[in-house]
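tl;dr need the bound structure. longer version: we got a ligand (9WN) that a collaborator sent over and nobodys looked at where it sits. i said id run it. heres the input, straight from their email, havent touched it
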Amino acid sequence: MDDDARRLLDAAKRVLDDGWTGAHTVPSRSQYPHQWSWDSCFHAIAYAQYDTHRAMTELRSLFRGQWQDGRVPHIVFDPDHVDGDYMPGPEHWDTARSKHAPRDALTSSIVQPAVHATAVFNTWFHARDDHARDARGFLEEMFPKLVRWHDFLHRERDPDGSGLLAIRHPWESGRDNSPLWDDVYASWRPSPEDVPAYERVDSKRVDADERPTDEQYDRFMALVKLSRDCSHDERELRRRSPFLVEDALFNGVMARADHDLGRIARALGKDPAPFEARSWRVTDAMNERLWRGDRHFYASRDARRGTIIDLMSAAGFTPLFANVPTPERAVEVCGQLDTNSFCPRDDEDCWAVPSFDRENPGYSADRYWKGPVWLNVNWLIYDGLMRYGLTDYAARIRRAIRELPLGAGFREYYDPETGKGHGTDGFGMTAAVVIETLLETRDARGRIAGTADT
Ligand code: 9WN
């Protein structure tokens, strides 16, 4: 490792140390003072490389918030920070209305992409020497929790039994104000009585121009209220939610997670077949319903209206993370990485993937999920490319994962053209993927050493 890389690694570890509460890592001290679901998975994937104990503690802490119906909430609140440090706090969710909510943890009632089985697998897989035994115990402990989590998703989030899972809030995608949802909003505007009283705090600490608009927040909050009004009952919400989307990233991550749960089962001497079968089901449904042959791309689908969301975003590359496309199709998808839509540089030297199509009028280089580069999503694409042996494309992203933080610090997101950092600073997911890519050893075919079964 060269000196720059060593310094970057140390700085990235310091970001995670700064966010470490003793039980979990906050995404950002100033902006996100609680525990977030997919952030914690990324943090654990990084810790798995150098601190097994922390990886286990992080994931155990998250699953303390697991509901009795199996759902893993997108936020587990820290009781020390519920006084206006973040909005919406527990009072907006009022999860006590559901008989399934945990009684000893304050949480939200929605979910985020299911990176958990992958994080648990990596934690066990990379554990060395004196940690190997603890990690094996951890795997045994987490397996039934993961099974309940995946059961919940496949049971409650497959509205028409197609195999594709639906999200019922933009926050569930992890990509809050992606222009993909504007398509849905075109036919849904909440009336004033659907929007609860609320006061934003997010735009006090980060430039309001870089955050979602008030109009978008009205919709976010209307969906929070709807969840509360339905006592967070998934059956009722499947019927009533105006936002019901089969997202390419959510499903790509799910197909991988089901597969990784199968690998966990195998490692524990149990039958992997039921989990692998689910993974194939999601994979087939994605290839059938979300693949746009004319665009060489995976789209998302508005499940409420039964229409394809005909827009291209970084999510369209994430099926690579789960080996969803055939090798031929994967090459087709990669072709998009060379177009003006996703290559933010004039020369051949493309690097990180912008979150949204640069050729679309809805693109913005500095507004949150409307175009900026998010390195956690880039890591999903990077990992996928490596699995296909598409190492040239992967190398571009790996380079960006180093260069962007070296140039602008561990920011939440970056301008795809200039590399300028935006959003909060000291951001955990950014630090995590830097650590993983610096420490991970992948074999000649691009796969994590020893995972030839994938
Ligand atoms: C809402 C914590 C989270 C990330 C999401 C990101 C942002 C929250 C917010 O921050 O969402 O969940 O308040 O904007 O969009 O991906 O998990 O880092």
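gonna send this back to them w/ a short note. The mean pLDDT is 94.
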